[in-house]
């Protein structure tokens, strides 16, 4: 089961329907992705609550002038085809933020560039 892919799809679906919040069952990769999106300014806040004995993640989306701050959310590395990249290849083709998993944890493309870390490119957000 691809939890990060499902999480990205939930965010994308809520953006298309102009919902201002999302709820999703909580896992460690989803929490890490949420922290990165909050640091980058794409989400307003996140709350972890318990519902029937399970952790649930409640996210509030950031809107500016009635439009979402997130313009596109594209999954790059998939379970059937993993895509690994070096830190030198981040900004050669696109200007969006890449979220990747490295040996130092989940990082956005700018943090990975500063730390000179490559890894699996999960998705791009702009």
UniProtKB/TrEMBL annotation:
Pfam families documented for this protein: Ribosomal_S8
Presence of the UniProt keyword Ribosomal protein in the record: yes
Keyword Secreted tagged: no
A single MF term (Gene Ontology): structural constituent of ribosome
GO biological process, one term: translation
Gene3D superfamilies the record matches: 3.30.1370.30, 3.30.1490.10
Family: Belongs to the universal ribosomal protein uS8 family.
Subunit description: Part of the 30S ribosomal subunit. Contacts proteins S5 and S12.
Protein name as annotated: Small ribosomal subunit protein uS8
Lineage: Bacteria, Pseudomonadati, Verrucomicrobiota, Candidatus Organicella
